[in-house]
Amino acid sequence: MSPRLADAAAILCFCSAILAQPALAQPTTVQSPQGLSPAYGRCLERAHSNTVQLAMCEQTEMAAQDARLNKAYQQVMAQLVGDPPKQLALRSEQRSWLKRRDYDCKLDRQTINSSCIVGKTSTRANELEKMIRF
């Protein structure tokens, strides 16, 4: 199975799990991390409870947050170019964070909570952006 098809299957599994449990399908008031795009909020509002549209919103925002995270990471690494031990520490920290994020956002062996991934990625991008010296 191609990675794209696997991602789509995981999103559909997640959406099916949400629909199967009415208590989870109810809107909740959760504080969103800073850095999420305004377009993401508008997308979620338009999607209402349409799981396919919600999945598309998540996928689009994940791409934006991943780009933000990668840009901030590269900028911090560039700042540390004269200090290889600090670069190694940041690289190790980032790898640990990725494993922890993926573990924390798993609903089961095959299903990932994509909104969790988006939120945690946005929060990490915020942390890395605070490390950038201007």
Summarize the structure.
The chain is mostly helical and 134 residues long. It has helices spanning 3-20, 22-25, 38-47, 51-79, 84-104, 114-131.
Word description of this protein:
- The structure is a single chain.
- This protein has one domain.
- The chain is 75% helix and 0% strand.
- The protein contains 6 helices and no strands.
- Helix 3 (38-47) runs antiparallel to helix 4, helix 4 (51-79) runs parallel beside helix 6 (114-131) and helix 5 packs antiparallel against helix 6 (114-131).
- The longest helix has 29 residues, at 51-79.
Q: Tell how many strands the DSSP assignment holds.
A: 0
Q: Please, how many domains?
A: 1
Fraction in helix: over 70%
- List the helices and strands in order: HHHHHH
Roughly how many Å apart are the termini?
A: 44 Å
Nearest-angstrom radius of gyration? 17 Å
The dominant shape is flat
Tally of helical runs: 6
Approximately how much beta-strand content do the residues carry?
under 5%
Major β-sheet, in short?
A: none
Derived structural class: mainly alpha
Mean pLDDT: 82
The residue ranges in which pLDDT falls below 50 over 5 or more consecutive positions are 1-30
Q: Which terms summarize this structure?
A:
134 residues; mainly alpha; 6 helices; disordered N terminus
Per-chain topology:
Elements: H1 3-20, H2 22-25, H3 38-47, H4 51-79, H5 84-104, H6 114-131
Helix pairs in contact: 3-4, 4-6, 5-6
